[in-house]
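pipeline/complex-builder :: batch 7 item 3
reading input block
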Amino acid sequence: MATENRQSALGMIRTCDTRFRKPMLYPLSYEGGMPRRIATIVRRSRKAHQTGMSNECVHEYDRLFMADPLVIVAELLAPAFASVAGGAEVDPVVRPSDRADAQANGALALASKLGRKPRDIAADVVAAADLTGKATLGVAGPGFINVTFDEAFLKDQLDVLTRDGRLGVRMSPAPERVVVDYSAPNIAKEMHIGHLRTTVIGDALVRLLEFVGHTVIRENHVGDWGTPFGMLIEHLIDLGETEAAAGLSVGDLDGFYKQARAKFDSSDAFQARARNRVVILQSGDPETLRLWKLLVDLSMQYFNRLYRQMGVLLTDGDLAGESMYNDLLPEVLERLRTAGLLEVSDGADVVFPPGYTNREGDPLPLIVQKRGGGFNYGTSDLACVLDRVERVKATLLLYVVGAPQAQHLAMVFDVAAMAGWLRPPARAVHVAFGNVLGTDRKMLKSREGEPVRFVDVVDEAIERATASVREKNPDLPAAEQIDIGRMVGTGALKYADLSTDRVKDYVFDWDRMLAFEGNTAPYLQYAHARIRSILRKGEAEETIPVDEGSVEPAMVPQERDLILQLLQFDAAIHDTLDKYSPHRMATYLFELAQSFTSFYEACPVLKAEPRARAFRIRLLEQTARVLAKGLDLLGIEAPERM
RNA sequence: GCGCCCGUAGCUCAAUGGAUAGAGCAUUUGACUACGGAUCAAAAGGUUGGAUGUUCGAGUCAUCCCGGGCGCGCCA
């Protein structure tokens, strides 16, 4: 193991051994016992690496390589724990700590099992573990193991990171097909602030899932079917197509819908026409379908404009509206009947999933066919599950839907499971989110007391941000000011939503989200822009060659801190996806940006002596890459200057 | 009435069952002859709504209260 001594950090390969379904850490010199495919990759990669070639093999090598020193130490600590514990199961989690670079706490958990003092156990583990060249260990407090990484080790790990096109982020060990159901506006109805949440959260999850290797199917479950369309189509006929198109294409969906609603509520004749029109629509009358399609197309034009403005990934290709499942509804009913789940209750065909009760304490049904024969949204949601599992062949269904729908979705999932449609490995997850509140802590409403329109919020965010950019940076060309204003405005809006735990209500506050200080998108974007500015300046300057004889300066704490942050990008992403909680990513990025600004104040870069300069430039390059990628995964752009 | 979610510093929010509960804003005090001050360094600020448990260890888990929000049969 000569290579191990010389260069321990580059001496290990981390990969996923399928036989054990467990991440494994192999010495680079070791091949025995590895699955053949991995052994081959390692052999080729090692050769490429030794010859200093930059080719596919190197990339593959880097991809398999684990850059996070916390994980590496955890892997190396595991056997030491096992030997001390005499075979007992220990999970030596190593996490960042204020008291050292990192901390492991397995000894405390073992104490009661072994009947020994935790400090003694920790001391034995420290004695048994060999982390030479990587870190020094110490026992602290009641039995924690403090980990302090060697400087050289950290630098080596940074090397690994800078060579990795994936910024150290592992692929998912078990990629799967994931459907993400999000945004879901209603046709011919305005998108409001609630749609902002599902759209922004859903889009971030899509980006994150794709980045770690899942096949993601975006589905925009638009409300394009059902009783309101009788009234909407009749109103369209009354108005005339050109007139209606003119209104709808400029985005006056609210006006259109309200006019239709008003007529429906006030005129019996109109109501009768509307009801009749629904029947005609559902019977497939071509002319009615044409008018229906017109409404859908005009609305989608408008929604698409908003999506593009917000940098949302959704396109017409992702449409999976309620109408799409229409033909499947009778099948849902039939299959439930065949499964023996269907019961008749008050004239409706229903399923009673156990565990739900209504106001009177009686069992609560999921209605699949209404009294009178119509289907309702439970039927449509069941059809969705069926379609996503059987046709799309997804194994993970994510529903980015507001928290109030929790019970309904739980019932749908339960019924789908009872029917045998949703069974492992396939499963559905309700990615619930709370309400948007005003600063008065009540549901955010406009002055008129109506839901705040999506479009108004986006416009105002961009307006405010553009004004700030103009004020702070009057010398930039106007076109660039507008471009940056859009990035900062939409970024701030998205980040405000993504940076808090999605399940809680969040308080919407213009001043805070655009405040360019604190935990906001502009702060992160500014950090990125400053780094890019330094790097641009550095490229323009002539570099003084490093004097080979000069001594490497010791790292300052701010450098250590920044490196450690960079090495945890992978952990941040997988942590985020674990709970489908984008705010974990946001928190990571904020801490990274803080580490950078502290570094920036403490460490001159371009004026540093050549060796330190080169190192710090590499550090900043990596920081900029991680910041930009992290923001990108949240759907936020990082401008070069602002 | 039943069920779900939330309750952490003045405000907005973090915190895999791990030590002395952390940030940001606001407040106070410092730092611009400076790679971008849209910044940084620091101070002060807490009975984690309350109680009882489980545990070596609880903001986190369990049970019960209190307060707030939401849902609870044919709208989606």
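note: Confidence is low (pLDDT under 50) at residues 1-37, 48-63 of chain A.
queue -> next item
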